[in-house]
Amino acid sequence: MAVYALTGFSLVSLLSFGYLSWDWMKPSLVRDFSMDPMEKSLPPAFSRPPHIIFILTDDQGYHDIGYHDSDIQTPMLDRLAAEGVKLENYYIQPICTPSRSQLITGRYQIHTGLQHSIIRPRQPNCLPLDQVTLPQKLQEAGYSTHMVGKWHLGFYKKECLPTRRGFDTFLGSLTGNVDYYTYDNCDGPGVCGYDLHEGENVAWDQSGKYSTFLYAQRVNKILATHNPKEPIFIYVAFQAVHTPLQSPKEYIYRYRSMGNVARRKYAAMVTCMDEAVRNITWALKKYGYYDNSVIVFSTDNGGQTFSGGSNWPLRGRKGTYWEGGVRGIGFVHSPLIKRKRRTSWALVHITDWYPTLVTLAGGNVSEAKGLDGYNVWPAISEGKESPRTEILHNIDPLYNHAKHGSLEGGFGIWNTAVQASIRVREWKLLTGDPGYSDWIPPQMLTNFPGSWWNLERLTDSVRKSIWLFNISADPYERDDLSDQRPDVVRALLKRLVHYNRTAIPVRYPAENPRAHPDFNGGAWGPWASEEEAEDWEGGGGPLRNKNKKKTCKICKLRSFFRKLNTRLMSNRI
User: Fold this and answer.
1) Cβ atoms 431, 465 nearer than 8 A
2) Has 555 been annotated as catalytic?
3) 44: pLDDT confidence band, cut at 50, 70 and 90?
4) Which of 166, 243, 308, 399 would bridge with 135, disulfide CB 3.0–4.6 Å?
5) Are 51 and 292 in contact (CB under 8 A)?
6) Is 152 an active-site residue?
7) What's the CA gap between 130 and 127, in Å, rounded?
């Protein structure tokens, strides 16, 4: 397995990349190579398998990109989107793990057992090992595969790690959120550990480096050392802009006029991430990849309004099945696109990237049975109609049941107390408790969450358990048509029943004390042996291990000095 070591990069030199420009129309830096057997299964417009760069951001709100009339500056993302294809009917999942699992497997979460919540750090749970992942399919097609950033698909045993699920190299975090400088993560009071990994080892030496910069540097290093004649897949899962809200001071200064402190820090993080994408794109040009590359940009869920994010004018926020939680920012930038510089309204879901990218790579999608995704490249590149006509947003049988829901309320077809949501053509149905349902205008973020009386609210939402919207005509979900169109409600409830029959049992085991970082040298990482894993995969209770190790008494002291050293070096308290 190849392991890449970061070369010394000064902060000044890294930032300088953000302001470099290049000639976008310059002839290809990649030479014309002879055809090889792999090209026989490639799309007609492709002479060689394209390099694929998939960029996923964390908790970036629908409103929080320049071309959505945001007050946040994202010049590089705006330029890439303007010169590519903007996806304005693009859907993701409302929280982290579900979006990532569906991207990696091409399957709805009801088909992987991950339909409830996220994978917690102390759970003996991970992406099911029987799933053939996207990077594994690309490896079969001859690709070198690399992951940089946030995993959040489980790590309780080594078989769950990114390097065991199809990635040749990995630099990033395994849990859901970490400090951007120290890489510490606490999963409750006193349950804290370090979470930055290089391959399958803890990367203690990288502490102190701002993660957005660190990840962009790693991508640059990968591109600099790889042969551009050979196809490469890089999955860049930025930690940005998830909490904690941390950014270099020079970026915060740009937004000093913003009244809301959380929004100010959040905006700085978005702009910093934008410049990291600029650096990655610059590296693609410099090292000869760009002319044969496909860059996909996607958010993982809606923005968290309590933490500076904005989904305006959509309804809801992260963690909800309203459009503000599940409609994502997405675009594709590539010299290989036939019809560039346009906006696509083709229906696209995050599961579609699996078959789309595998097909672009010349891989065999037919062997991956049971996919819920579709190949949407013709819709993106040529403007053809999307093969997708419906999306199962989710069915979560474990989520708190709605008080006013019932089987009777679902015409005897479906229990409307169950949290579920589905989109069929222009119609969207929600049942159960979809989550927080207000609209929050950007100007309200100045005083949010204090000025509750300024928010647009529907006070009757808590007394309902079923909603129907024509999303094409009413993308902001203001006009509930469930009473006027019972025929459509019935039809969509039957589709929920259809999908529910194909669902596998929920995988959501109890947390286990054995996962505590104190038992792993102060870091989050694999903790279960093969024998232990077999006992817990069925969802068993906490481990009672007679041979449990003693608590690491120096871990807290080590963490204190590591943080102190980091702060002294970075001069950022």
Assistant:
1) yes
2) no
3) low
4) 166
5) yes
6) yes
7) 9
Distance from C-alpha of 79 to C-alpha of 267, rounded to nearest angstrom:
18
Residue type, 120: R
- CA 470/CA 67 separation, integer angstroms: 25
Catalytic one of 111, 152, 197, 333: 152
Both structure tokens of 174: 């395994």
Q: Which of 96, 126, 192, 272 is catalytic?
A: 96
Choose among 371, 383, 372: nearest CA to 346.
Answer: 383
DSSP 443: G
Query: Which residues lie closer than 8 Å to 394 by C-beta, 6 or more apart?
Result: 93, 94, 98, 108, 109, 110, 115, 321, 419, 420, 421
Q: Flag whether the pTM goes above 0.70.
A: yes
Cβ atoms 241, 210 nearer than 8 A: no
Least confident stretch, 19-33, 337-351, 363-377, 483-497: 19-33
Reduced to 3 states, what is the DSSP secondary structure of residue 110?
Answer: helix
Q: pLDDT exceeding 90 applies to what percent of the chain?
A: 78
The pLDDT tens digits for 499-550 are 999 999 999 999 999 999 999 999 999 999 776 665 555 443 333 333 333 3
Structure tokens at 219: 């991508």
Phi, psi of 104 (to 5 degrees): -75, -30
Residue with tokens 């970036």: 60
Classified as helix, coil or strand, 493 is helix
User: What does the alpha-carbon distance between residue 436 and residue 433 come to, in Å, rounded to a whole number?
Assistant: 9
> Residue 523 has what DSSP assignment?
B
Smallest CA-to-CA distance from 50 within 366, 377, 311, 314 is with: 377
